[in-house]
Amino acid sequence: METTGKKHTKNLDTLVDDINDILVGISSGKAPDVKEEQIDKFLNNTKLALLDWLQPRKSSGKGLRMSVIGRPARQLWYDNHLQRDDKEEVYDPSTQLKFLYGHVLEHLLLFLVEVAGHKVTDQQKKVQLEDVNGHMDCKIDGEVVDVKSASAMSFKKFKNGTLYEDDPFGYIAQVAGYEYNEGTNNGGLLAVNKSSGEIALFRPDELMKPNAKDLIKNLKEKLSKNEPPEKCYEPIPHDKTGNFKLPVGCVYCPHKFVCHADSNNGDGLRVFKYANSNVFMTTVTNLPKVEEITEQYEQKKN
Description:
By secondary structure, the protein is α+β, with helices and mostly antiparallel strands.
């Protein structure tokens, strides 16, 4: 018997729905068609991520990499001009653990992409643009896709398509650089919410993407100077008492203590331990009623 219905064409437009169909099917008792080589690939990638995490390599930070071309010029200037001992930061235990399960989640997501019937190619392919090297995550159905695990708050930017308004880690520029090298222009960022497991695909249009070649040339010029560029972000209010803190774009920067050494009338950043996270304050008008842990960060640096 012939059918008149059209076969479902799988591409990036259907990617999230196709993955969700797999997950809903499992919840309903329907086992997905999973090939043994897909499982082996996922397990091997997870093993490599774990080994890499257990034996981290210290980077000198010199030069540019494709993964950072969208980051603020001042941060990259410090990467290139500070000695390693001056810029190295010891992360909190929770941050180190988040790095690990973030990588595992990203490999899990690509596993689901393949199980959902989409084609994953060019994983960790080396790319080069203006003598800047990088390794892209992959192509999905022929388009460059970078895979990210995100906090609940950050995930909203992928889901709502507002990442271009606030992209402190330069994700869009990173994709643009890979696409320039590959001659494609319709890729995006596949993100998973680390808290809820929700998945979203953000595909920036051409107006949101920088010209990667021009961006790299501009960065090289700024990095060649003896003085750092202007500050990347301004402090934001922490509460209504007049206290100001670093925005998220600065919180994860390893150079925040050097960059904001003029905070608090020249005393530098002060760090306070709140229930959900440590807060780095640039102006303390009213002393917070939580523990101050500034000395702990000073000891880590020493």
